[in-house]
Amino acid sequence: MTSLVKYADDTYLIISGTNSSRIPDELNNITQLLYSANNFKLNSSNKSYEMIVYHSSKKLTVGPQRLKNIARTHELTVLGVTFNSSLSFSQHMQNLTAKAATSLYVLETLKAHGLQGRHTGM
């Protein structure tokens, strides 16, 4: 007999600004669905965030009301890709550049200390 195992790590709720009043109801629906399926409890203390996305040419003066017990952020990382509230990926590119520079420095240091592996490409 085969058993089915469900696993939910990240859940994203995307709602347009015109429907922002529905956010609490939709969060409640998601929590109820996940709880009934997996004995899930919404952990809003440190893993739940809301991000208001807006066009970069328009300054957001008044956003929707903050959600209770959920922190508002201006930047999220989803599946390893970092983007901000205007959907810019510049921080992601900076992170990749810094990581590549660190790796290059390590390889150059190893080469300077005599490492002549066939996989260094140097």
Tell me the total number of β-strands: 4
What is the strand content? 5-15%
Distance between the termini: 54 Å
Largest beta-sheet characterization: 2 strands, parallel
Rg, rounded, reads: 21 Å
Can you count the helices? 2
**What is the helix content?**
25-40%
Element order: H for helix, E for strand: HEEEEH
Poorly predicted spans: none
Mean pLDDT over the full residue set? 76
Question: How does this model look, in words?
Answer:
The chain is α+β, with helices and mostly antiparallel strands. It has two domains: 1-74, no CATH class; 89-122. It contains two helices and four strands; from the N terminus they run αββββα. The protein has a two-stranded parallel ribbon with strand order 1-2. The chain has a two-stranded antiparallel sheet with strand order 3-4.
Key traits:
122 residues, alpha+beta, 2 domains, two-stranded parallel ribbon, two-stranded antiparallel sheet, 4 strands, elongated
What is the secondary structure topology, with strand pairs?
Layout: H1 23-38, E1 49-50, E2 71-72, E3 75-78, E4 81-84, H2 90-112
Parallel strand pairs: 1-2
Antiparallel strand pairs: 3-4
In short:
The chain has 122 residues and is an alpha+beta fold. It has helices at residues 23-38, 90-112, and strands spanning 49-50, 71-72, 75-78, 81-84.
